[in-house]
Amino acid sequence: MDKLPNFKQNKTEKPLAILIILSGLTGIFLCLINAQYDGYSHWTKRLLYFTNQSNIWVIIIYFLSILPFAKKHKESVFFCKYIFTVCITLTALMFCCFLGPFADKSYHAWSISGILTHAITPALVLCDFAIQKQRFLINKKAIFYTLIPPIIYLILTSILFFINLDFGRGENFPYFFMNYFSPAKLVGFSSVLPYFMGAFYWLILILFLILFLGFFFQKLNNNLCGKFSLKKDKSTTKNR
After folding, report:
1. pTM here?
2. What are the CA-CA distances from residue 188 to residues 97, 98, 171, 201 (Å)?
3. Does the structure show a pLDDT above 60 at 48?
4. Which residue of 25, 32, 118, 226 lies most exposed, with the fewest beta carbons within 10 A?
5. What angle is formed at CA 196 by the lines to CA 190 and CA 198, rounded to 5 degrees?
C-alpha cells in the first residue's frame, strides 16, 4: 500500500473506535451469558461461530488502533481494519439476508446481543471506514487477503464437522449452508428450506461475495484517498 500525506486524525475517529469496542464487547458478553437461554449447551460453543469471531477481531484491531503502538504501525493497522471491515460486513449481510429470516424462534436472533453483533457493530465499523482520514492506497492484490480469515474459518469448521463436534445445538455445523449432509447434499438442490442448494454452491457464492466486498471497499478507500488528497492540496495552496 502507498502512503498518502499525513492528514490529521478525524476528531470523531477515536470516540467512534471506543464505541465500536464497547458495542462489540457488550454484544459478545450478552451473547455468552444468554447462551443456554438461546438453546446452546455451553457458552464456549458460541465462540465457534463466525459472528462472534469477526466481532472479536474488530474489537482487537480497534483497541490496538487507539494505543500508542498504532502510531508506529499505521499502515498495518489500517490494512487489518480493511480486512476485518470486509469480514464483519459479511457477517451482517449473511445474517440479514439468510440466517435471520430462516432462524428458529429459539435462537432469539433479533435479541439485543444479536442486533449488536450483527447490525450495530458492523454499521459502526462501516462508518469508521468511511470517515477516517489517515488512509493508505489499497492495491488490487490486497483484495485477496480478505479471503484469509473466512477460509481459515472454513477449514477449521470443516474439520470439526467431519469429527462430528457439536456446535452447541446438537448439530455438527455452525450454519445451515455449511451442512455438507443437508437434504441438498454437497452439490445438489432441494425443495426443503433453507437447504435449497448444496453447501458447495453456498461456499462459492460466499467467496465471491467476499471478493466483491473487498473490491468495493478497496475502490471506496482509494476514491476517498483522492478526495482527501485534493482537499489537502487546496488547503496547502490557500495557506501559501
Report:
1. 0.87
2. 21, 19, 20, 9
3. yes
4. 226
5. 85
